[in-house]
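Review box. Two proteins, two foldings.
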Amino acid sequence: MNERVKGKKVLITGASSGIGEFLAIHVAREGGTPILAARSAHKLEIIAEKIEEVFGIQTPWYKADLSNDAEWKDTIDRICYEHGSIDGLINNAGIAVFDNVVESNWQDIDRMLSVNVKSLFRTTHQLLPHLLHHGEGHIINIASQAGKIATPKSAVYSATKHAVIGFTNALRMEVEPKGIYVTSVNLGPVRTKFFQQADPSGKYEKSVDKIMLDPNRVARTVVDCLFTKQREINMPSWMDSGSKVYSLAPVTMEKLMQKQFNKK
């Protein structure tokens, strides 16, 4: 059991499946209390019951549509009222729809901005005063390698993750001197249901099948760094190396990687 996590309350958004579900399990395994939020009440209830049965950790959950700012704001207020101080926040909720900009549906664009960016800002903005009041805590934002290297058909998704990384880096400099850790998690493709919405054709998922990350391993890595000072988690490491080369020579990389960039 991780003594840093034991007894701590950690709010996890997008907790009804994939990485979010495994994050909840690993927080509980280390003796922490995961507080779950997502749209599916049925899935959240099942996860909470499983965690309570296996680890004996009472697991509160909240049904909320994070794309609805007013609803999510009220839910955060309720969480703070019912649980007092929150020790950690993992902004995990995120969606994507891969399409050329000219062919994109505005509702899809708006929803990506609302879930990936606005709800993350909202959650952080409302919880940050509580963390600062106690002089400790950890905010982890699940970003993406797409926030470092944009590719065709992911203009909006990449833009949302650029925003998350920029927000995370600035926030870190603001609050680390006050005792709050801030970490961005920049991931390549992860084997979850994410791609069922992002690319219903299944072509992109099939093209990256061999390099997909295991969501359980991702969650384990994230929880292992909870309440420690860590600027970034980059997975896989070779993709992070590629993003560094890209930042130095973007034109060359775009030419060399054109085939790979157009797999969506």
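Next protein.
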Amino acid sequence: MNYTENYRGVKIDVQSVNLDISEVVQKEIRTSIDKLSKFTQDINAVDVYFKTEGTGGTAVSIVGMRVGIPGPDVFAEEKGQNWVPLLKDVVEKLIRQLKKGK
């Protein structure tokens, strides 16, 4: 499931391989953008990647997020089990990068 939306002037591009992204996860993506916007007002685009590696009990979920800002983009990725906590961890990593860049 891939989809694109415009949220508060930020182009969101979500890519997921053979996965459906629930409304809860979509809402968390929007919340994440709100959090990131507190640290920089210049976000042009956000690319979010969801994928699963492995099968059965050994499957690992991976979330990556690229934030398009003037200058070099920031990117973070996290591996784990549940999408929403992974998104929150990725946002924390991105916030640290944005703080360093100021």
